[in-house]
Amino acid sequence: MSEKKIFYSHEPDSKIMVKKDRAEVNNWTDDLEYIIQELEYLLGIEDRVLNNRPLYLQLHDLRRENQLKLGILYRYEASMRNAIECDTTDCDAFYLHKHEQNRNVYIDHLKKYRRIKSDVLSKILQFVER
Question: From which domain of life does this come (predicted)?
């Protein structure tokens, strides 16, 4: 198996950091796209098996939030090409701060999703044990 090399020793550190950040954002968007699929399954399970209105509303809200977060990350990813052109530490700091903000939003959303998903799975187990 050949491994694609994305960083080269002759590249400046700033370019390597932008590539690393871009790869990280790509992973985040992949995760959120997968969550869209899982939420559709969870909503189907809730509708066909659990019939729990508060849980349905939570899942529906989470699906909407997921779409919004995904849009934010896509726009951020598109704006990252401007980070390559930074030539001051203030500019670098701006994009670093923006990246950290987006990372925190992604992590918080992922935690919320996992909590609600665990709630759905525990309710399924309770339903099956009846």
Answer: Bacteria
